[in-house]
Write a structure and sequence with these properties.
The complex is a heterodimer. Chain A is about 75% helix and about 5% strand. By secondary structure, chain A is mainly alpha-helical. In chain A, about 50% of the residues are buried. In chain A, α3 packs antiparallel against α4 and α6 crosses α8. The model of chain A has no long low-confidence stretch (mean pLDDT about 85). By secondary structure, chain B is mainly alpha-helical. Chain B is built from 15 helices and 2 strands. Chain B has a two-stranded antiparallel ribbon with strand order 1-2. In chain B, a hairpin with a 2-residue loop joins β1 and β2. The N terminus of chain B is likely disordered. The chains are: A mainly alpha, B mainly alpha. Chains A and B meet through α4, α9 and α11 of A and α6, α12 and α14 of B.
Amino acid sequence: MFYTIIEQVVNGIVSGSVYAIVAVGMTMIFGVLRAINFAHGEYYMLGTFGAWFAIEYFDLPYPVAIVIGVVATAVIAVVVGNFVMQRIVGAPAEAGVLATLGVALILQNTVILVFGGSYKFFSGGYIEPVTLFGFTLAEQRILIIIVGLIVFVGLELMVTYSRMGKAMRAVSQNIECCAVVGIDVRHIALWTFILGAGLAALSGVLTAPVNVSVYGGMGELITFKTLPIIIMGGLGNVRGTFVAAMILGIAESLVATYVGLQFRDTVGFATLMLVLMWRPHGLFSAQARF
Amino acid sequence: MTTAESSAAPTGRDLRIPFGLMLIALACVAPLFLGNYPLHAIIIALIFLLPAHGLNLLLGYTGLLSLAQAAFFGIGAYTSALLAVHFGTPFYVNFLAAGLVTGAIAAPLGIPALRLRATSFVMCTLGFVIIGQAIAKNWISLTRGDMGLAAIPKPYFALGPASFTVSGTVGFYYLVLVIAALATLAVYLIVRSPAGRNMIAIRENETLAESVGIPTWYYKLVVFMISAAFAGLGGSLYAHYLTVVSPLTFQMYYSTTMLIIVLGGGAGTISGVIFGSLLFVGLTEALRVAPELRMIAYGFFLLGLVFWFPSGFAPLIGRFWSFLEKRK
């Protein structure tokens, strides 16, 4: 009994790490562009498809496939960022919603058109089980947790010390002032977007061996999981997002085991509504950006 | 968003009335020269017009961006279907019950949701859709889960001993046409009333509206309920027209569609929303080449709409009107 709970919590931390890497990109995009990116899950899907393509057609090893998936997604993000996301800066909220929904439709259905809508088997990854402190865990899951920690420490260092990171923080606090002091806001918005999409792709490639199957519509579910996380974590708040992602991952895992698997995908929005009733600005202050 | 209504010159009235009468006459005789398939498309457009009118009241007039229309659409469809299948009640009972139940359900949902600011409100309303779908899928004893409810009777009216059933596309077309016309009239009356002016005041500046004594909270809640009721009525028609409902009735697709109709036609204008619903149906029919290509084209259409016509296509029509009038 106790063993099962711990096991489910560990599983929850793994999926929490995955959600955290996806959501942190989305929350940074919101911070800089002031737009909810409804296409965010599609970049997760694109990363997975890039890696699947590399393994299936060129027989490349998994680590190389990770790089290919992330780079391919980043290239697409450059195009989308240039043609769509940069124009959203300063536009009304509806524009952001409609434009990113449009991008989601285009990306998702192009992938389905090219590769077909069926489920595909993802064969890469490290699935050997290892025993740690009496718990058996697949290597891939440990890798996910480690990469999650590296990503968050790296982001924290980047936004605190690097020039680009400081600029991102500044833009997320006040666009007008940044424009006045000569920061190229559209340039920052583009790079934030590429970073966010790349992180989503990384998370997709890391999870693919655990999920085993890959299909064109998989991004939508991720978008719907990420949205409550970023709201709960306080929009544009990186640390809050991390905590909210962990809470959601663990809650989902426990609900799936003790309530029923079919309720897992509603946990996010149900928790979100409860949280918003109690704290309308999310669990963490929206002011503490990045 | 406000430009559309005012861009038509006041002299346009003498042109508008004959044009409107012509349109009504055309709508009445449409079955004479339209085949079953185009008629089916127009029926769908008129059904979608109801939730779109609701969303327009909320987004176009009160300034609240909501993605919950699909949830209320689904609740209305299920209410109507359950009544018809289990109790065999006549159509008008199901139809009105769908509107009332949906409006009533919207109240407890709206009270917490409307406390939230822009983005959080959007997400919360999106959550209603996701949770509604989960309930429709998992409350199997009531909704039969993924199998959905089938064999919903075609609308039938029973008044005393006399009763008749609306069967066939033409009959349904007239039924939907009448309902859509009544709904449009209702929206027109709401918008032209002092309440409508107050709604616009809330959209333009909520703090200012509050300070001049408009009970903004009360207005937002009531408009949210009315918009939900409109969506529920549309869902009821949809259930009786397709004669099946399934958890797929709760889909983001419907919320997106309503948003496209309202924003594409021109939020904050009634004629814009009517035009938007016809435009949307025309678009989906024109794109019926292959489902994937259709959705890709749909996506590009959305981007074009956002970047080139940020206030919808209604201002274009307004410009066309003034062009016609100048030539007179």
